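User: Hi! I'm a student and our assignment asks us to look at how structure tokens line up with a sequence. Could you show me two examples?

Assistant: Happy to help. In each example below, the sequence comes first and the structure tokens follow. Example one:
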Amino acid sequence: MCGIVGFVGPGTAEDLHRMTDALTHRGPDGKGIHIDPHRRLFLGHRRLAILDLEGGDQPMWSQDRKLCIIFNGEIYNHADLRATLEQRGHRFQSHHSDTETLLYGYREWGRSLPERLNGMFAFVIYDLEQARLFAARDRFGKKPFFYKWSHNQFLFASELSALQHHTDFSAQIDPLAVQKLFAYGFIPAPHAIHQGCRKLPSGSWLELELDGMRLQQGRYWQFRLHPDSAWNQRPEEELAEELRTLLSQAVQRRMESDVPLGFFLSGGIDSSTVLAMATRHRPAHELQTFAIGFHEPSYDESAYARQEAQRLGTQHREEILSLEQAKSIIPQVLGHLDEPLGDPSILPTTLLSAFARRHVTVALGGDGGDELFAGYDPFLAMTPARIYQALVPTRMHRALRSLANRLPRSGRNMSLDFKLRRFLSGLSHPPSLWNPTWMAPLEPDAIADLLHQPVDPEELYAEALGLWNSSDLADPTDRSLEYFTNFYLTDDILVKVDRASMMMSLEVRAPFLDNDVVAFAQKLPIKFKLRHGVRKYLLKKAMTGLLPKELIHRRKKGFGVPIADWLQTFPETPPLSPLANANPAWVAEQWRQHRTRVADHRLFLWSWLSLSLFNHQTDSSNI
């Protein structure tokens, strides 16, 4: 796991060194650069050594010095690809470097290389013969790739903060990106918070022709469901056994490491499944597990993690933190984010990463299980929402929503009053917008009030509408699964885990996002994911007998912190506006209503706080 950076065009070696050094937290084990004055090409790399500790330095060159690569990520099928490439005549210099496999894979397959990769990655290959840069990002965008392109200059980096160290970079906020932050709670690719900057979307590649600075971009993969109706007749136990086998293989692939490796353990079904599969490949007493908990019961899951670790016999470590301790790191964490993020679980994720990094360099987690196998509350809400919208007139809906807004506020984790208000707010919009508005910090009318400008809902939610309207799936729950996997997973969950873990120089791997597991989930009919109110139906069946019954059927809690209560007193003075066109009186009123418990504005206020503090680059060494 590493950080990559570079540019073509105007700039100096000093620019490159500043940009590369800005990514030291992503790669504390080494630094490498390459400068081609003739092409005005500058490449930088920071390394977190995981595989082939002696032979994996970057930039890495082919033997003939005609290809050069900088790479961030891990390729889990690199050994199989290497064997194929060797059979085709390619000769490797390293012992088992997945970086070198990419180098010769590009020579053999060109643009189609990313389609063959099972892993998480963002890489750039410099092809000297073709005078070309080729870049690609993994299927789900686990590894970030930001860029800025003009007629005479191309900048790229793993983090926006690195781009800002180039002399020519202008860090002006993009108004449309701000709108989308408040509409989604995150900024969806290809948008980025700074004007002129873009994110390479997940499952995409780009090519830059150095002669003429022409840029091409394409998508080699996107998550779409194609349920196989024939699977409805397959025995459930047969499907469950196939899922167990695929998960076992996925975990085994991700246990390859030349440095200490551990497991995040929450006590929920996803992380416990990953750990259970790991015990098939290594004795449990050799496995290290990590959990954090809080003194406040409604947010603490550490007891469940401890019970599962004790049952299996792992080397378990846990930290129990006060919520005041967690609250104290808000400025440091938000100050290290490339972009504002409306997800407060960045805090416990950062604390867990910091704790685990004191003992291991790689950790496996359960990300992706909720999206692939229907683990979230909105999946349960789709059928009631359809019935409600068909039966309840608009006037009655407005009255019910007004009544719900008067319910007493609770700061408890996923309280009933919070979920009811979110449910009714979504139903003020058409079904194509239910999912984003259920999760939104603000609805379109409120964004217009905040920013003193009209907001076009079709432009605001263009990504969500495009996905929903292009789907040929009949079941709206399947369409919701596509939404959460393409947007919430990619641009919220995986961004959160990448930034939190890499802030601590920790690599986190997600077995549920293995190519083969995902292909299985894409074909699995919805009745095996959600049945009679039971979420993750087949996953729970697959793990019956391998995990305790009470763990499998325990109510989902999520990885949360009591942000609604914190925002009653933190910060002492609400932050000043980072936006020139914002309505300060409107913002002040939202803070007043929240702090007097007239309304619950937690999602907006956290997003506003994140926007105010992001990219301040405060010191995170005390986390």
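Example two works the same way, sequence first and then tokens:
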Amino acid sequence: MTLRPIFVAGLVALLVPPANAVELPEIVVTATRTPLSVSQVPAASTVVTRDEIERQQAKSLPQILKTVAGVDITESGGPGKATGVFLRGTESDHVLFLVNGIRIGSATAGLTSLELLPVAQIDRIEVIRGPRASQWGSEAIGGVIQIFTRKGSDGPDVSAAAGAGTFGSYAINGGAGATIDRTDYRLDGSYFSTTGFDARQPVPGPFGLDQPDDDGYDNASLHARLGHRFANGIEVDSFIWRASGTTEFDGSFQDETDFLQQVIGASALFAPMERWKFTLRAGENRDDSDNFAPDGTFASRFDTKRQELAIQNDFSVAKNRLFTLGADLRQEKVAGSTDFTETSRDNTGVFAQYLAEVGSHQLLASLRYDDNEAYGTDSNGGVGWSYRWPDGVRVYTSYGTAFKAPSFNELFFPAFGNPDLGPETSKSYEVGVEGRQHWGRWGVHTYRTDIDDLIVTVSDPVTGAFFPDNVESALIEGVEAEVATDVSGWQVTAVASLLDPKNRITGKRLRRRVKKSLSVDVSRELGRWMAGARLLAQGDRFEDAQNTIRLAGYGVVDLIGQYRFSRQLSVRAKIGNLFDKQYETAHTFNTANRNLFVSLHYAHR
């Protein structure tokens, strides 16, 4: 069956205005580091709320993100396995991940292990598409994904859930929080375990492998958050989010990892003067892994620690005029069984931003300067304009530059790293039109991103040794269309993406990128019942840079259902891959066949 009719039908559906209203979140903070209405941001954004996470019955962060506009997820063998995230066709390390304002990820690999972050403690996710280096610094070429953890709410909030399913999977989680006078608190814990399935097909050749076993995964996590508002207006907030466990995979030299993901943060906010708001934020992220060979012996250890301090001043220079001035100080340290030639580096970034609203016009200008002791300095900026009509339609355009700092592996790995590497750089243009009418919301966004000085592995023509170098460039052009509405009581969300990601030098498509993607989500509540379905259809992709290994396109349907016994107690069920589609998003790596998960939920709010 060809996928073309599915894509055509989806694009047509996006242009048909149905009949009722959809209420959607209005405020984002990731785009400008200040609270701002989505209608004022000259960028495409998506907000995923706690209610939406629970409605999807998502068991992992990749499950949540894979149907967000502009996001493409590749999986390497099931839950807890290496996952790639391509935001608007950029590389996986061209996406900045934050947790409550704190940068996360491995300084050695330069990637974020989002597959290891539990979803039970997530309250909200903001996805800002397009460059944000002038606000946040390195990595924000394709965009920024920020996770906000749960916090205490008005009155007692107690929740608990337990469930089990195919692949020997089971999960249990619980939490409680409240706001008492000026203090709010939240405490959560969760555990997930699965025996999994065979992560990878047999690979022939001298460096091949054949490990026909189930590859399991377990994750135990803890989250705590505490905040207080003093009588003088000072607000403080602190949190810890920790996840640890084991993931198994198929590999010739290593096939098991014991991991630790941890984020700790604290912030203080106060207003020294009526027009001046001051924010101080400090945090630490740990990304640790102990890796083991197929015979169970220790193979390697990589430990990353990132510590940072952020200072931000917001000045209301006039009505609807906001000037922001701040600085980020970050230190990265690596340790483990590998003797890197350098084990630490500092980065200092200073930034300024101006926001203005003049009638129906919104203006944004931002500038940032970063100084990194490992590779030098980098400056980036961005400008944006939007106009909003009274009927809820708005148009915007923006331009921005961004960069990605080389990782410790690329700079300092023994007998491989290249200390002369510079950062990867980009410039992006975007135009979008969006609407929020009585029947729902819609949007169409088109963009172009030029990336230069891409870091790839090359070989020395004399010695034959391999090393990374800034030698490639890429051009990515794309368009996204999305609509959310209510059709005869059915909540409908559809997202379509068309993408042309190519290597400028060879003209070939960038590896593992799809050109066409469509997601359609429908659900409805009928008294105590809720039922829904989701279709994800994607075109083909190539595993290699030469475009010789083609992975076929596919379509996958998931079903969800829920029955409420009372306001507090409900049972939920999800069938994944209903039609048992066999497909790959990474060559030789298996994906889940038809599966079922059933869970019981209690919530008192």
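Here is something you could point out in your write-up. Residues 7 and 380 are 37 Å apart (CA to CA).
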